[in-house]
Amino acid sequence: MKLDLKKDHNYQNGIYDFMAGTKSIVVANKEIDIEVDYAWDYASDPVITPTIIHEWKYLDKLVSKNVLKNARSILSIGGGGSSRTHEYLSPVTQEFTILNTGMWDLVNAQIPIETINTYLICATGEDMPILDSQIDAIEIPATLDHVIDARKVIEECYRVLNGGGKIGITLGNSDSWYRKVVSNLRIQVTSNHDHHHNFHFTSKDVENLLSEVGFTEVKTIGTAYLKLPKTIERKMKAPVLLAAHRFISNTMLRLLFGNSKGGMFLTYAMKPTAR
Ligand SMILES: C[S@@+](CC[C@H](N)C(=O)[O-])C[C@H]1O[C@@H](n2cnc3c(N)ncnc32)[C@H](O)[C@@H]1O
Most exposed of 1, 53, 174, 189 (fewest Cβ within 10 Å)? Predict the structure, then answer.
């Protein structure tokens, strides 16, 4: 993987910092602040239940199977911190790059085994300091709703991917069946954390974005269909209960509701090979 080292940067403590104090991006004549202070360790957040963590692991497995498999060079945009991608890398992976605007995620990033070259880059997904056609697979884990210019990020992904390379985007779904029920019944929900989201995507929005930029074979897998009261979810720690929860959530209810109505989703696609 070749970095664009002509761009201004510092290299310190194993991190390439290309932000050099950049704090905002201008989109449509509006200056918008970049998220640089994200720092969330879910393990110490009481609202995160065993079932939520189990759902995240399931989504990670889907990314591994549908996006990262057979990729020699992998880029994670918004990874690091509590992300567990290092556990799901393909045996053929030789390079793993984490690009994030936040130093906390980079400093606390879990590094894979040392035979895999790991790059930590502080930069925006909108302007990646990576030369063209360097990467086999990109994951954007729960991050596209945090960026400022989602289309620019997807265009940058297209640029740095090799032909035949894959992209996978995971997100909470603004069009999930239970969010609709909650909003129709006007039930007050206390948010599970105070992260700021610039966008609230549906899987259709992400599919359209990928197609517009030129990606093909765009597919979505919906996940996390089952939501129980927190008091019950907190008690579901036994592996057999979690397995039953996953079966109902991601097999039975997915069959019932279809791929676009889960609480979370993975949308993945391919950059076509040049003809
Ligand atoms: C919900 S977090 C993703 C998961 C996170 N790694 C964790 O462990 O929880 C969203 C991430 O997006 C990063 N981010 C925000 N704006 C970004 C941008 N424009 N380009 C790249 N990363 C960005 C934040 O720093 C944050 O780490």
Answer: 189
